Structure formats: structure tokens, C-alpha cells
Amino acid sequence: QDAFSAAEIRAQFPVLQTRAHGYPLAYLDSAASTQQPLTVIQAVSDYHRLHHANIHRGVYQLSQTATRLYEEARASVARLLNAAEPAECIFTRGTTESINLVAASWGRANLKSGDEIILSVLEHHSNIVPWQLAAEATGARIKVVPMNDAGELDLDAYRALLSARTRIVAVNHVSNALGTINPVREMIAAAHDAGALVLIDGAQWVAHGRTDVRELDADFYAFSGHKLYGPTGIGVLYAKRHLLDSMPPYQGGGDMIEQVTFAKTTYAAIPSKFEAGTPNISGAVGLGAAIGWIDGIGFDGVSAHEQALLGYATERLEQIPGLEIKGTAHAKSSVISWVMRDPPVATLDVGTQLDLQGVCIRTGHHCCQPLMDRMGVSSTARASMGIYNGREDVDRLADALLGIVSAVRKRGPASVSRIAPS
Ligand code: PMP
Predict the structure, then answer these.
(1) Tens of pLDDT, residues 392-422
(2) Ligand 1 atom 5: residue of nearest CA
(3) Which of 75, 84, 236, 347 has a Cα-to-Cα distance from 382 of 20 to 30 A?
(4) ipTM score assigned to the predicted complex
(5) Is 89 a catalytic residue?
(6) What Enzyme Commission number(s) does the record list for this chain (predicted)?
């Protein structure tokens, strides 16, 4: 095992000390949502107990403190992403809202009939549907980058899709369903050569490695706080200043204006222009604390630990009879998807049986139905690991899967839902 102390880190997560069905929790669903360390819980709690007030317009000290905490969180986000300035980091509800913001604001202002939007077959529905809405409203068309059977995007096909008609490319940095790490830097450079902008859905990357939007030269970068050991209901849209300056507001309301009359309204400068209404102040504070916390651990350690764990989990799952791993890309984050073929066991049954032994995984289409169609399955079972996981979690998973296989072999597939946990 690597030098990184997952046990020490795990001890900082109250929920990981709880039990499910009488078993210690083996939490293997961090791609859906990470758990929160005490530091984050404490920061949110302190904010509520001691510092809460509405921000930006208060003349009194408490409001100014709340404003400072909110803006400090934005500065933390800018450091995490290496943005040129905090104003380029807009707080949203999450990745979904960040992408909707770009598709609605930039999309409707810039797309027209005959223009093309390039997505990939690996996308989450939240990086498909907003573009379909924008395409329907403007007459633009969507093109899709295919992948090989390992779950890697076909870069030759991607380059062939790029043309003078391409206005924007929207792809994920890491696939939530398969774990594939996409060569986004190369993809961004190719898109820029073709004169197109690029949005990166970073939901599944930011917790796993260093992010540098300027080195990537990303035009837009989106992520969610709750996949980075922070709270739900808070996320970020990074965009280059000149793009944000030229985009129309996404929503109208308080805090995003300069001057309002019934004849005409002028808008505030960024980031306020894109943050109408009272934002999720405590969520931002929690996200800022999460960024500070993970920074203290360091992404080199995070990545080495997770890659070692991924290697171990892959080895153990490969030894399970009839289990087929979906997504065998050369570069992967700490996600393993699989189906059980022989004996066949429905993924829902797998998830339910694992739950009875305190092992939390996700089953289903993972909001990636086009990807499931491409792979010829309707669902997969998915285990995803965070920095608090250790080999014991992987062993619990693999041992339970072996138990399922032997029970089904003994009693037949119809009996799977009656297998008692050992
Ligand atoms: N994109 C990817 C790749 C994701 O994994 C997710 C969350 N599963 C999302 C977008 C949407 O994130 P959120 O639900 O936090 O808006």
C-alpha cells in the first residue's frame, strides 16, 4: 500500500464511522457525491452560528463579514483552478447549472442555423440536454465524438468533425460512468485551431488531480462542490473574462444590476452579472473550506493513493468469474464499472445485495444513456473511490461479489434477491 494514510483521512469523516445494515460503511460512491470532512462541516456550521447575513449590500459589520467569507471562497476557487482572477469564477448550484448557464446565455446569443456543437458519446445528460435545448432554439446541430471499446474517445474522428461550422466543443474531463480521463488539453488545442470554443465538464476531475484552466486554455470549466468534499447546492462556472463580459445575463434579479428603470436595465460587472438573487452563501463557504482542506493534503498524494487503489480494485475484480469491466481506458480515474455476465446478475440485484453488507455502490445508467446504448447494456454497477477509501473497502466489495457469484451458481439467478448476506 502507498504511504498516504487513508485511515487518518477517513477518521475525519463522521459519516464513515456509521454503519449500514449493521456493517461498517464501505462507501464506494464518491463519483455520485463525496462525503464531507469535519473541517467543512465545521466551517458551514460556524458560518450559520456566527457569521450569517445577506451579502454585498449590508452596511453593518456582520454583513461585511459574510461578504468577505463568500468572496474569500471565490478566491479559493480561483486558486484551485489557477484562474487569472476570482471574477472569472461564477458560483452556481453545480455543474448542471454551470452548463445550462453557458448553453442558454452564450449559446442563444452566438449559435445560429448551420452551426455545430460537438459533444462526446461519454457525456453525462447534463452536458447533452442543455445543448439540445440550445440547438432547438437556434437551429444549430449536434455532432458526437465516438469512442473505442475501451471507452477512449476517437481523436481522429474528433478532428474530422471539427470544421469552420464548429462553434463549441463540450466534453467531460473525466467520464463519470467509466472513469476515462480524456485528453482535454489536446482536444482544446484542436478546437481552437478550428476557431471553436471549448467547455470542459470537470465534475469528475477536480477532486482527483490538479486543475489549471490557463494551462489547458479552457474557455469554460464547470464543476460541483459536492464531488470535491464540499456541500451540495454549490458549484462553479469558470470562464475567460472576455467571454463573460460579452455574454448576456442568464437570470435577472437582485445583485446582478447596475441601474434599473422600467425603460432599461444595465448590468453589474462579473461575477455579479451571473449571480442573480441571494446565493448559496454557506455552500460557498463550505466549498472554500473543502478546497483549503484538499490543498493541505496535496493532489500528488491524492492521485498516487487513488491510482494505487484503482490498480488493486481492478486486479481483484478481474478475478471474479463472469465479471466484465466496462471501460478499460489507458488513463482512468478511480472508477470501475462492470456487468456480471456469467452467471448473469442484474446490476440492481448486485447493488441491493452489496447494500445489505454495508457496501455502497451505484447501479444504473449513471445519467449516460447514449453511452449505455453504445456499449449495448442498459446499466452497469459502478464503484468509485475517494481519498478516504482503502484496500479494505475494495476487499469488502470483491468478497461480497464472490459471494453473489457462488450463491447464484448454487441456487440459480432467480434466487439472487434472496441471497442472505454472509
Ligand atoms: N457531469 C458529470 C461528468 C457528472 O458526473 C455529474 C454528476 N454525476 C454532473 C455533470 C452533474 O453534476 P451535478 O448533479 O452536481 O450538477
Answers:
(1) 999 999 999 999 999 999 987 655 554 444 3
(2) 176
(3) 236
(4) 0.99
(5) no
(6) 2.8.1.7
